[in-house]
Amino acid sequence: QVQLVESGGGLVQAGGSLRLSCAVSGSISSLNVMGWYRQAPGKVRELVATISSGGSTAYADSVKGRFTISRDNAKNTVYLQMNSLKPEDTAVYLCNVRSVFQTLWGQGTQVTVSS
Length: 115
Description:
Distance between the termini: 40 Å
Strand content: over 45%
Shape: globular
Largest sheet: 7 strands, mixed
Helix content: under 10%
């Protein structure tokens, strides 16, 4: 069974940085899109960033210039480098991997940014 294992969340002060990681355990299609979503209490889940297996990236306007998504295809791992964090970035961050065969979600990791 394929699973996504996230790590790297935590508590940080505004202006600080965190790096999230999401490793895929198991076999998945090499053609896929990896991404990060987030969900704050009382709010809908929103897309943060995605990266294709070819390296094309997309970002939510709210994180452009502050967050960077990257991936290591050999390790089946996706990263989210988050800089200049703001209190409004506080949320549970969820890893997502999708291909024509399947869509997978991680369990989520909490990111809390204090003012």
